Amino acid sequence: GTALSPSGRLTPMLYQVLVVVWAGLVGVDAWPISPLGEYEKVSQQHIVVQCGDDLAPELEPNQYLTVTFSGGKQNNQDGDCVIKIRADVMDKDTQKFGLWVNGSVTVSDAASGDNCTTSYLAVSDKDDEEDKTGRTVKYCGKEEVSFHTSEDIVRIELLLKNPDVNTAHFSLDVKPHFLCGGVVDEEGNITSPDYPQPYGRDLLCFWRIVAPENTHIELDFSEFELSRKKRGKCLDKVTFDLQDPECGGAMKEPRKVFHSQSLLFVFQSVKNKDRAKGFVAFVSFKPNARKDSLMAKFFP
């Protein structure tokens, strides 16, 4: 989790991390505010798996993975067919990505029942078995698979009992999708991850907003719904240049004016909390007011 002070503000340790990353963004190509489908040319990796496979592919944001399996009478573990896949997507600079898993599965095991008790395909975003905050969905029979997570990993596991009798087939696409963060140098909307769907857990997003010369930054929040304070402290929150956080169901001042050419906009959510809808903020760049000076009189 992220280190916080008792007031709910970011600690000096995290401040230093953000400043280092901020500095590292100098010279980085600007990222579109909502770059879904606008990333670099997409490449595909196709894996045909067998019983006994235990794989850990890593994906770049512009890659997606297709995993297929058909059969069961192969290398078995203790008489069962077991396949394990852990797919990770790597962040790009300060841009964060989640994962979609889509496809279809057929698991034929009469003993499994509707609760998938014996044979199943499981998709999860848990880091490991000790992770109590993640989600796991089991599929059996003949089903369509649709699993979305704001985590940067998914775990796919097939357990097929008695593969000499039972069978399984699946074809799954694992695709990264943009969540949040990056460099913003054009006017447009910034949204919480997956808006208008509720944002995910345990997220830390930061955008570096850079205005053109002789302009300043304004943010207009048309939507703002985060979890409310608990014991006077913000849980999920937004901050601007690491100042006091804002949270709850409404923002006191939806229009925010920053008399600067750059701004660090941070959004954070905690691990264990029901999620809210999130926010929409329009970024605009306004001309700076001319200073009344002697030079301005001679050079209008």
TrEMBL record:
Signal sequence, renumbered to the chain: 1-30
Keyword Disulfide bond: yes
InterPro entries xrefs: CUB_dom, Sperma_CUB_dom_sf
CUB domain segment(s): 179-286
KW Disulfide bond (keyword) present: yes
Gene3D superfamilies: Spermadhesin, CUB domain (2.60.120.290)
Pfam families in the record: CUB
Keyword terms of this UniProt record: Disulfide bond, Repeat, Signal
Protein name: Cubilin-like-1 protein
Native species: Coenobita clypeatus
